[in-house]
Give the backbone structure.
Amino acid sequence: MATTITRTRRRGRQTISFELTPAVVAAAAVVGPKEGQGPLGDYFDVVKEDDLLGEKSWERAEARMLTEACRLALRKAGHSLKDVDYLVAGDLLNQITSSSFVARELKLPFLGIFGACSTFAEGMAVGSMMIDGGYATSLLVGVSSHHCTAERQFRFPTEFGNQPPPSAQWTVTGAGAVLMAAQGDGPAITMATIGRVTDPGLKDPLNLGAAMAPAAADTILRHFEDTGRTPEDYDLIVTGDLADVGKQITADLLERKGLDVAGRLFDCGSAIYEPSQGVESGASGCGCSAAVFSGYLMQGMLGGRYRRLLLVCTGALFSPTSYQQGESIPGIAHAVALETQDAPG
């Protein structure tokens, strides 16, 4: 027999407002040497000296970074694995193998998710629903990426030395993890806006910012339509990894809709590297938004620099198979609103 729903946490078409707002109790960021040399290097918890981390393969190195980020987030909160109900994690590799191997080591009940580079916000949204619904009291959300594993899977052999165009992005070698709980100090996740798949018809894997920008604009617009908020209600509107090309396209698309976000739009892919580091348009990868949030932005919220952020992580939903078959590259963006206790009402 069907159950009658008497109340809902839905706001508008795509947004959820949480009644029991989960707290981000702790966050940890582990990155590679190139990321540590960038302008945000001092904000990461751990900067590795080499991309292999002493492992036999880049794939093993990626899993090791994510494991370390998860364990470090727990230590920073004074928790242990027995205090955690679930691990929600994802990455870019085939069948999210990095996350699965991390789950094998941590031995936590595991939900593996894939949203390409939007996975971090997707994980925080899913985790918030679990906590708000009473299905978990605490959980870990973690994601990772690695420049060399992504290049090997999606583009060219690293030995090939391919010359990228100005629109290309450098996949971040890094991992970020957050410990979320029903109670605790730290920024609260008050809302989540679940994105729709958009497809501008682009087929170039070296121009992913342009492919993802319409999804970012769509989710940002829907968030404000659903909630009645405006860009002025947020200190920053943070996109995940659009980099310089995608960031500008997103700002232009929103301006055409009458939404001016230029002064508040912060893109993790544009911020994590210096142009002199040879990264073309900027950064991409699951680890991009995860590391920047878990390091720079989380410290900014805890230090009072930011009181309310809208984190909008973007993903390009393609695979080597779809690309080889001539398919276009759809995009997705998920958003979570994070607020400190002293954020304006």
In short: The chain has a mean pLDDT of 92. DSSP finds ten helices and 15 strands in the chain. Residues 58-77 form the longest helix (20 residues).
